[in-house]
Design a protein that fits this description.
homodimer, mainly alpha, Amino acid/polyamine transporter I, Rossmann fold, 5-stranded parallel sheet, 21 helices, 5 strands, 64% helix, elongated
Chain lengths: 620, 620
């Protein structure tokens, strides 16, 4: 087993696909981490905006959270229907392009691609951010830590779905278990204390209201909280990854993810109100995250606190994994329709669309590097892509049912219609609330991506038109080509070239460009070493042609001669045989002139379909 | 006339060589600028070391200068004999390697190559340095000015010798004329005033002695003054550049250069003593160069002063030109003996060894950039290369005469022997005096260069052994090759490939790697589109071979199959035909898989002499 196999795993045969498929338990670490980790930053983002309202603000978090949970329920039912309708995976791109047209599909695809890259970058840097705030000595290494986690995630994901599950199962369920436990214990205590429990460790004091509540502020809080909903799309896009019955398993997975997320959001909101926990200013020295306050209020600061906080950190960093699962599936779906390079269709050694992973990692690393590993400023861009995709997907589903007709159509159209309307309104709210904070960047990049993808499609369509052939092979004029061999001194290399030329065709010309050496010696050697033995063997002797070069150019006289011959011989192809020295070590390259490469390039650049260059390698 | 022709000149035919040759008048700007410009910095360097001695120091400059002049005379006579003996150019490299062995030759070549690069860098930065001290506002642009002058020098030199002469004739003779005039007028006034002339503008006051003179100090002064002798080698290396009688013209040129330089050195030394001119501290604000003091003492500060100073500046910057004339000749001589890449032998469009110029410019630009255009610190390294080359060359000449024998041998051996001894002693003095100031760097680089050159030679010798052939061409076994065509879907590209394969040989195999697509469709298409029409035409149908690929690899099964076939067919060459899509725009490259390139690379890397890859270009 080679080192490479050890790192990324042995190749998997196409027939092993079934063994790589997963069930709901394994589906949660693969597809659910983006959604579930939202519990850690969605409420925090909403509460941070409520800081100016002080104690009064905490009261508002409960209705806002329940509005988000309601929206989540609507989206959940819509996506269950999508999974039913698209057994091979119904991402927003597929649904939108099949039901609303290619433009809508490209819009959804652009939005989602941006979103997945942002998710990976923001997830990793949020995890590293929490780690660094716990251990400030790591601060100078923020970027290195981010790229390190990116590398580890990549290596694990390159090993295929099964190995990814194995790696992420423990942190995922530890996170789910501890957070659920905190919520249950906290709720029990709150009920037991009649709604006013005494925290084991008191959270920071919350001052009275500083400013008055406005509708605009509440809308912004809602929009921030909605970042919790990214990642819901993942499962419906990845139905193919589940073992049969795939649709049932996918829906089960989605159900578990959504129920857990709802429980988290509701529990955190209610407990924050019960324990009077507000967000703290992340830029002030006394900063403490909402979940940290919550856990220590309910459980104190024993070992359980540290286990819980560590699992939250881990899941934040791992939330990028949803991007690894879905981005390559999305780019593959787009590439299948010729809007992205075809490499995205190639399944790598571990049955993954490897180039999708490379692209995701490349863009994520790019974002992490230019932002130095601190991607706070990208968060405003975040939810837009998701809600744009939601809206297009649900609207597409309405059209889908309408077109399909049959029993239950009306019912299904209503469910997806409510989904489309709700997510559409939310999209507007998020766009308006976040436009000046950076959402305008998305508004620039999305059309750019759409234009690029359309250009790619046009190119592929052009190539397809060019090469398509609807007739059998032409069998006329299969004469051997005219073979031209540039010839310098008489060496083993020239012998090999000339012999190969004579094997290919009985029409061979040796061409010597006479720059500074004497042609007499070449002529003499030719007669003695080539013409004489060939005459003796009764074979045709190739023509030896001298090209005069008063300005000592070697390549241009050759190219001009070859083109002249090509014009004179309309019914023969021209093959130019170029001996090429292959050196053992790279540093020997400058020791030999690169004329053969240059000649090949010059001939290729002429774009003549009838001239073919044959390199005769000579290994030193 | 294209823009390119306008900038570097039209190409010159090999037959125009005679017209490019020069006489003594033109020889001075080409070969003499390095030596003559020494008058501007040699005495300055010596006097700077004498500053601590005050007035007493000025007295010492005369004997030291005459010692240098004596050495110059010895070297002059030696080199005249070298020119006689080597009518095609007798640089130190040629003389040393022919008479003292290859090792000695390489030592001389390394030393000289370093020296020429240093000369170019130091010359340009000295010129710019003087300019900047006159116009301090230019200081931030020092590097840009240096690189600009390097570029101008390069463009002028790339046009060939004749154009170089045209460009540099005026500044060269202006410099010679004005400086001679200053010396004559000054000497006349000094004699008229009985040895104590009154300066028109008094030079800065020279304080009395601060420290006592030591032998060590005088040796260091001598070593510094010897930098004036670099560039003397140039003419003997470039005898070829002169028009017939080449040796006579070369000797005339050398004589003029040496006599002028001697006059300058003697005149400057005597006038400095007569007018009590000492060097000033270059780091103090009152700095004024020795020549500036001298000219203003003798001539005042009228227009003549400014013309003289300007021509000195110009000649300093142009002194780099000697490197342009000689470095390419040196690298060519070394490359002729296989110790440097053969590109150094190629004569470019203007009959120059262009690659030598590229290398010189590259290294000079590198030095200028890493030192930011201030190369003062390189000056200590300077004279070592020159004196090492002088010594080896003179010693080689002694051996040359000894070997040759005949009339006048003894006389000639004595002249070159004195030269070798004198320059050898000077080399020791310079080495010891400058070792800690940076001469040790030369002591590291020289062996490094020698090792590299020996490795180059070994490589070329190996290649020559590999490819040499002393027998006529083998004419047995000229069977057509077995042609293997990797085949995907049935397209125009496959048709072109298959047709070309059938033109080359009657042994053709089409190979399909069955990764994920169905082989049935390929088989069906083959029967209908290839087999049927060929059968109808009564031609042989190529074999269609399926390679199974459970792990979806495309290239490895192909490579393995090709190697298997190669082993099975010991008496046929294998030609692999790879269709290659050529895109119109570079950005389209990632839209097509690069498998054909990769397959070619994989096959080349196997290093099998019998497998030949043929790319069939398809232009989109």
């Amino acid at each position: 087993m080679s080192f490479f196999d050890l790192v990324v795993g042995k190749p998997l045969a196409t027939s092993e696909e079934r063994a790589e498929q997963i069930g709901p338990i394994a589906g949660i670490p693969v597809f659910g981490l983006d959604a579930l980790s939202s519990a850690a930053y969605g409420p925090e983002a909403a509460l941070t905006l409520l800081i100016p309202l002080g104690l009064a603000g905490i009261a508002h978090i409960v209705p806002i959270s329940f509005a988000i949970i309601l929206l989540l329920a609507i989206v959940y039912f819509s996506y269950c229907q999508t999974i039913d309708a698209y057994p091979h995976g119904g991402g927003s791109y597929t649904v939108a392009s099949e039901n609303l047209g290619e433009k809508a599909g490209l819009l959804a695809a652009s939005a989602l691609m941006i979103d997945y890259v942002l998710n990976a970058a923001v997830g990793i840097s949020a995890g590293v951010g929490s780690l660094v705030s716990a251990f400030p000595r790591l601060l100078p290494h923020t970027l290195a830590l981010c790229l390190g986690i990116l590398l580890i995630l990549t290596l694990i994901n390159m090993r295929g779905i099964k190995d990814t599950v194995t790696a992420f199962l423990v942190p995922t369920y530890l996170f789910i278990g501890t957070l659920l436990f905190v919520i249950i214990v906290g709720a029990f205590r709150a009920v037991a204390a009649g709604g006013h429990p005494v925290p084991l460790i008191a959270p920071p004091h919350v001052p009275a209201s500083i400013s008055l509540v406005t509708l605009w502020l509440l809308l912004k809080v809602f929009a921030s909280g909605c970042t919790a909903m990214t990642g819901v799309e993942a499962v419906s896009n990845g139905v193919n990854a589940f073992r049969p019955p795939a649709q049932k398993n996918a829906k089960r997975t989605l159900t578990i993810i959504i129920v857990l997320l709802m429980t988290f959001l509701a529990g955190i909101a209610l407990l924050c109100r019960a324990y009077s926990i507000a967000a703290t200013d992340p830029n002030s020295p006394g900063y403490q995250s909402v979940l940290s306050q919550l856990v220590s209020s309910v459980m104190g600061r024993g070992w359980f606190y540290y286990v819980t906080i560590a699992s939250i950190l881990a899941v934040l960093a791992l939330s990028a994994n949803t991007s690894y699962a879905d981005f390559p599936r999305l780019t593959r779906a787009v590439a299948l329709r010729n809007y992205l390079p075809h490499v995205f269709n190639i399944r790598g050694r571990r049955l993954l669309y490897s180039y999708g992973i490379y692209a995701l990692v490349g863009f994520t690393a790019f974002l992490l590097i230019i932002f130095g590993g601190v991607t706070d400023r990208l968060i405003p861009l975040f939810a837009i892509g998701a809600f744009l995709a939601f809206t297009l997907s649900q609207a597409g589903m309405v059209m889908h049912w309408k077109r399909q007709g049959g029993k239950g159509t009306r019912h299904r159209m209503i469910i997806n219609g409510i989904g489309a309307t709700a997510t559409g309104i939310t999209l507007l709210v998020v766009l308006v609330a976040k436009f000046t904070q950076g959402a305008w960047i998305t508004a620039i990049i999305v059309p750019g991506l759409m234009i690029t993808m359309s250009a790619v499609k046009r190119h592929y369509d052009g190539v397809a038109r060019d090469v398509v052939i609807d007739r059998p092979m032409r069998v006329d004029n299969l004469n051997g080509p005219l073979v031209i061999v540039p010839m310098d001194r008489w060496t083993r290399i020239s012998e090999k070239g000339l012999r190969f030329a004579m094997k290919l065709s009985d029409q061979v010309q040796a061409v010597h460009v006479d720059a500074e050496e004497g042609w007499e010696e070449i002529e003499h050697n030719w007669q003695r070493n080539v013409a004489a033995p060939l005459n003796q063997a009764g074979r045709q002797v190739p023509a030896l042609i001298f090209l005069n070069s008063p300005y000592r150019f070697v390549l241009m006289p050759l190219v001009e001669y070859i083109e002249k011959v090509e014009k004179e011989q309309p019914d023969r192809q021209i093959a130019v045989l170029i001996p090429e020295l292959i050196v053992k070590h790279w540093w020997q390259t400058p020791l030999h002139n690169q004329r053969s490469q240059l000649l090949k390039l010059l001939l290729l650049m002429r774009g003549n379909q009838r001239i073919i260059v044959i390199n005769i390698p000579w290994y030193l």
